[in-house]
Design goal:
- The protein has three domains: 100 residues, Immunoglobulins (Immunoglobulin-like, Sandwich); 682 residues, TonB-dependent receptor, beta-barrel domain (Maltoporin, Chain A, Beta Barrel); 30 residues, no CATH class.
- The chain is built from twelve helices and 51 strands.
- The protein has a 22-stranded antiparallel barrel. Strands 1, 2, 5, 8 and 9 form a five-stranded mixed beta sheet that branches.
- β24 and β25 form a beta hairpin.
- It is globular.
- The N terminus is likely disordered.
């Protein structure tokens, strides 16, 4: 054994010697205007091999010998420089570099999704981008999760935290009421549907035409969630109309432009990555009464059961020594997550390729939930002729997602106690008698399943031809096609409203096609004056098919997924084929550069669509950028964009009446009157700002102020019933609103030495919102549980209007309702007024330690979770369980008692990574790169809010179907706490 060990050591030693013998030495000085430049990064391109310049600007390191090597030099506040050299083994050479001042950020090319080539310094708008380096350092289950807390003015939040569920985006606040506030998604130049893709009452949840149960089907997978984050090269977010106006009537909520990785040049490179980890509930419900003793049980019994007619003393005494299980967390578990990805890339100028394949498996932290997906990306690129480039991308994903009946199983825990007059809070769950829902245990609850199987194929192609030295043509075409099949299963005997069992099945197909043609021309009029012109047209169509069927009365003991096992009356099959939405746009843009200091942009887009009145609408844009110094610029921009109406709003539609949950007969009556004058909603925005790179690039600041004004918002308004099929209200362009805010981004290099680098950043944003115009008479638009959030003229979108008795006299605006509750009082805004995040990255000799801490401030939440626990017939709330009924009932009924500030701070991410040095890998001969990282996400939260599982969660269930409604906490699980081990190997 010792001989073998000795031989192994000798072999390893000889391997190291051989590896070092094939190197050469490069040295020199890094200067700027003749002065030494310390702390500059010098690197062998395509490797992790490199060093930093010392205090006198000098450097020295070893590079590979016997081949061409590119030496790249970079330093914050200066433009990059590089040199290609070839050295023999053991040779030494001096290579000096003189760096020019300039912000690399301002020189970067902005990805717009159209064939418009623009550098950041030429644009008058702010920029929000995240690259593959950042995404790869965050082994998140989805690309959406990687954006949480990263970009100012871009709010990303989850509805329930179930695996495979989509995140919601609010870019510079809510941007629509009847329409979607989700941004337009563009992947490799084509439109990708980013709507809520969750069938089984998802597409039709709460729809009176289907009668589907409204147990909260708002949390489906979105288009961005279908992309493997490891395949993404960059994500560019165009925040407002000033930046996104070139997308016209579809860009009022912003645009997310995704560029995936593509084929490269050089030898075949093989990479493998493994992400594996666990997930769990971030925190339990606050104020849930636990640990009942015999004295407390007796006290509770005297309050709820004074005459002893409900329970006997013996019934109650049996629980005196039984510790209560926390059923608010009993329905959760420790979940797991794994993703395996293999990537191949290489090729030549005439043929480059990139391929990746991935398998992901997630067992959710909520019992009964899981998510499995597999797919791949193939990218082929070629330059068959000088000036001609061709690129084709093919992305395929299929997913299998299982969910439970509501956003969180906690929903059924209070529901069980609320509907059972005999229930005691310290009882075992299985002992609760005469339950309305009929669910005997939380394991039974998990058998109420929502199952979705989906496939998605996205194909895109791009041809770019350089006609002359200054003129080029660009063609981009693609298709996004997806199918989603879902079913919701209610086993017999579990749910009272479906006592004999029920099966809901639905199916959705969506096809979206995009074609873009563009011309670009650049004209250098003089050394200090140039003009860049772009013109093009874009066509897209969106076709959706939906089918729904219900089956009832399951034969006992039979498979609930087999439709032949149902004997009851089948509700009439419902299906809809929505009109194909066709949109054609014509865009143009002119950029004028004067003396490399002043840059002017003017452009716009004409849009025409089948979803609104048949005419073209014009969306202009203009901006100016003045570069006062190489590292300081001032900017201003103006633009207009729109939101298209849903395709069915301009035509007559019907709804069903009668039948109820289980009825088989229905009658159809008019629901929405036709409106041939329907226009797209419109947003105009102006923004000002400046960017600065100070202290020789060690401090970078970006400040932006924006003001967005909305008009022609689609709202229900009074109409003439005589000419509108008897309907008194219809969707019309009558609303107005504004969003205003300030965005700040600061990045500082605190320490920069050859062995240690420490960068600290801060992003912050403010938001002020108000509804300025509503239909007359100004009826409120209610939403959420008990209509607790409402839209009223002169107040914020989704403000909390809590119900109070007539005799209350709050020091706040009140309105009489004419119904129960009698009076509502305005409590405040549910949209965070302030958001801030601090990130830190510390590099020490191959180790990287990163943290992200973020919070949201000055906003309110309606604590329905706590209110449920304080119900006088439950008494599960630790602060209220022992109150006399006469005292507790008014508190429970007064909604103002359950409104709390939602301010919080979270430790969003903590990670430590290590890049194994190239020299240490040399003896393996085949491993070129090895990176290992441990990442924790959503690890802790600090808040005074005493409510549900996660202060940041937004309720999607319990009847909340309005996308604008926010600030309601009703038993939703929220984003889980996760721990991930990430291993990346390059061969």
């Amino acid at each position: 054994m010792r001989k073998k060990m000795y031989l192994l050591i000798v072999l390893l030693g000889s391997s190291f010697g051989a590896a070092w013998a094939q190197t050469a030495t490069v040295s020199g000085k890094i200067t700027s205007k003749g002065d030494p430049l310390p702390g500059a990064s010098i690197q062998e391109a395509g490797t992790t091999n490199g060093t930093s310049s010392t205090g006198d600007g000098s450097y020295k390191f070893s590079v590979a010998a016997g081949k061409a090597v590119t030496i790249k030099v970079s330093s914050i506040g200066f433009k990059d420089a590089q040199s290609v050299i070839t050295l023999n083994a053991g040779e030494s050479r001096t290579v000096n570099f003189e760096l020019e001042e300039g912000s690399k950020f301002l020189e970067e090319v902005v990805v717009t999704g159209l064939s418009i080539n623009a550098k950041q310094k030429e644009l008058g708008t702010s920029r929000a981008t995240i690259g593959s380096e950042t995404i790869n350092s965050l082994p998140a289950p989805s690309a959406e999760a990687a954006l949480v807390g990263r970009l100012p003015g871009v709010e990303v939040f989850s509805t329930d935290g179930a695996p495979g569920g989509g995140f919601r985006f609010r870019i510079r606040g809510g941007n629509s009421i009847s329409g979607s506030s989700e941004p337009l998604l563009i992947v490799d130049g084509i439109f990708m549907d980013n709507a809520n893709r969750n069938t089984t009452s998802g597409a039709a949840g709460g729809n009176s035409a289907t009668g589907a149960a409204t147990f909260g089907m708002q949390n489906g997978t979105r288009g961005l969630g279908a992309l493997n984050p490891e395949d993404i090269e960059s994500m560019e977010i165009l925040k407002g109309a000033a930046a996104a106006s070139l997308y016209g009537s579809r860009a009022a909520s912003g645009v997310i432009v995704v560029k995936t990785k593509s084929g490269g040049q050089g030898k075949l490179k093989l990479d493998y990555s493994l992400d594996i980890g666990s997930m769990e509930l971030a925190r339990g419900v606050s104020k849930y009464k636990m640990n009942w003793n015999a004295t407390e049980i007796g006290q509770w019994a005297n309050l709820i059961n004074p005459t002893k007619t409900i329970y006997t003393d013996a019934n109650i005494a049996q629980y005196g020594n039984n510790p209560l299980t926390d059923y608010t967390t009993e329905s959760f578990r420790k979940g797991s997550f794994s993703r395996n990805t293999v990537r191949l890339q290489g090729g030549t100028r005439k043929f480059g390729y990139y391929f990746s394949g991935n398998i992901q498996n997630t067992i959710g932290q909520i019992k009964g939930t899981d998510f499995k997906t597999k797919g791949g990306l193939l990218s082929l690129s070629s330059e068959p002729l000088r000036g001609l480039s061709v690129k084709v991308n093919l992305n395929y994903q299929d997913a299998d997602r299982n969910q439970v009946a509501a956003g969180s199983p906690g929903f059924f825990v209070p529901n069980r106690w609320a509907n059972d007059a005999l229930a005691m809070p310290f009882m075992r769950y299985t002992d609760v008698k005469n339950t309305v829902q009929g669910i005997k245990s939380l394991d039974d609850y998990a058998t109420i399943q929502r199952e979705n199987v989906s496939t998605r194929l996205t194909v895109s192609g791009n041809i770019n031809y350089k006609i002359t030295g200054n003129l080029s043509a660009d063609v981009n075409a693609g298709i996004d096609r997806s199918k989603v099949k879902g079913q919701m299963i209610y086993p017999s005997g579990l749910v009272a409203i479906f006592p004999a069992g029920r099966l809901d099945q639905d199916y959705e197909e969506l096809t979206q096609k995009t074609l873009t043609l563009g011309l670009n021309h650049a004209w250098q009029i003089s050394p200090k004056l140039y003009v860049k012109s772009a013109v093009g047209t874009q066509y897209d169509d969106n076709e959706r098919f939906y089918d729904y069927t219900r089956f009832q009365n399951l034969t006992a003991g039979k498979d609930p997924r087999d439709t032949s096992n149902y004997t009851g009356p089948q509700k009439a099959q419902f299906f809809q084929v929505l009109p194909i939405v066709r949109t054609i746009g014509i865009y143009f843009n002119e950029t004028i550069g004067i003396g490399e200091k002043l840059f002017l942009n003017i452009g716009g887009r004409f849009d025409r669509s089948t979803s609104f009145i048949p005419q073209f609408f014009f969306y202009p844009r203009a901006s100016a950028s003045y570069q006062a110094t190489p590292n300081v610029r001032f900017r201003a921009a103006y633009g207009v964009s729109g939101t298209q109406p849903a395709p069915y709003l301009s035509t007559l539609t019907f709804r069903s009446v009668g039948g109820g949950y289980n009825g088989s007969g229905t009658n159809y009556v008019p629901n929405n009157p036709p409106n041939s004058d329907l226009k797209p909603e419109e947003q105009s925005e102006i923004e000002f700002g400046f960017d600065a790179s100070l202290l020789k690039g060690r401090l970078n600041v970006e400040v932006t102020y924006y003001n967005k004004s909305f008009s022609n918002l689609l709202l229900n308004a009074p109409i003439n019933p005589a000419i509108n099929f008897g309907l008194t209200n219809g969707i019309r362009n009558v609303g107005g609103m504004y969003n205003r805010g300030l965005e700040l981004s600061v990045n500082a290099t605190v320490v920069q030495t050859p062995s240690v680098t420490w960068n600290v950043g801060f992003t912050g944003a403010t938001l002020q919102n108000e509804m300025t115009t509503m239909p007359q008479p100004p009826n409120p638009i209610p939403g959420g549980i008990d209509n607790i959030v409402q839209i009223r003229e002169g107040y914020p979108l989704s403000g909390i209007w809590a119900g109070i008795p007539f005799n209350a006299a709050p020091d706040a605006p009140t309105v009489a309702t004419g119904a129960s509750p009698n009076v509502r009082v305005f409590m405040g805004n549910t949209q965070p007024r302030y958001e801030g995040n601090i990130n830190s990255t510390l590099n020490i000799k191959g180790f990287t330690i990163s943290t992200l801490i973020g919070g949201k401030f000055d906003f309110l939440k309606y604590n329905q979770t706590a209110r449920d626990m304080a119900n006088p017939v439950k008494r599960q709330h630790a602060d209220f369980w022992d109150m006399p009924t006469a005292q507790l009932t008014p508190i429970y009924n007064d909604q103002t008692q359950w409104v709390q500030r939602g301010d919080f701070v979270k430790l969003r991410q903590l990670s430590i990574a290590y890049a194994v040095p190239k020299a240490a890998l040399a003896q393996t001969k085949f491993i070129k790169r090895l990176d290992v990282a441990l990442v924790g996400a959503n690890l802790a939260q600090w808040t005074k809010y005493e409510g549900g599982y996660d202060v940041e969660a937004e309720t999607s269930g319990a009847g909340l179907t309005s996308a604008w409604a926010r600030g309601i906490d009703s038993w939703d699980g929220g984003i889980p706490k996760t721990y991930t081990l990430s291993i990346n190997i390059g061969f």
